[in-house]
Amino acid sequence: MSTLMIILLIVAVVVLAAVAVAVLNRRQQGAGGRRGLKRRFGPEYDRAVARHDGDTKAAERDLGERVKRHGSLRTRALDPAAREQYTARWTVVQERFVDSPRDAVAEADRLIAELAGARGFPDAGHYEDQIDALSVHHAHHVHGYRKVHRASLGATAPGTADGDRTGADTEEMRAALVEARALFEALVAAQHADTDADTTRTGRHDTVKRSTGIAPKGVQHG
C-alpha cells in the first residue's frame, strides 16, 4: 500500500471518528436538554407535547422559547398589607362560590391575573404572555389558572345562564377553583415567585370545601 493510500485511510478514520463524536455529543445534549425541560416543567411538559400532537421536538422548542423570554424575569415582592388584601379578596371569592359560582370563578380569574401583574409578570391584558411566563416559574401550578380562565370565559359567554349546559357546570368550576388556589398561594407568598410554593392537596381541598360546601370528587373527608 502506497504512502498516499495510508494517509487517506488515516484521514478517513479521523473524519469518521470526529463525526461519531459529534453525533454522540448532540444526542447527549438533546437528552440532557429534554431531561432539563421535563424537570423544570413537570406536568407542563406533557401538556406541551399533547398540544403539539405528540411532537416532542416542537413542544421542546415551545418550552425553550418560553425559558428564553421569561426565564430571567425577576419578580417583585408584595408588602404585608398587599398580601393581606389579596388573601381577603380570595376568601370572598370562595365564600361567593356558594351562591354564585360563575361570578366567583370570573372574579378568581381577574384576581390571579391582577396578582401576577403585581408580582412582575406580564399584566392581565396579555393573557397568553402572562400564562407562558407563569408556566416557566410555576409550572406545577399554572394549569389551575388556565382552568379558571376557561371556566370564566364559559361563565360569561352569552347563553350560559345557570343551568344552561353550554357553560361550565358547577363541578367543573369548583374543580378549577380548587386547582387555581395553589397558584394564588404561590404568588401571594412572601418569598419570591421564582420557585413554586407548594401546598398540600388535602389542605387546598379542605379550604375550598369549607368555603364552598362542595367536597371534590375522589377526596374523602373525615
From TrEMBL:
It comes from the Bacteria. Residues 193-222 are annotated as: Disordered. Residues 193-209 have a biased composition (Basic and acidic residues). This is Secreted protein. It comes from Streptomyces atriruber. The lineage of its organism: Bacteria, Bacillati, Actinomycetota, Actinomycetes, Kitasatosporales.
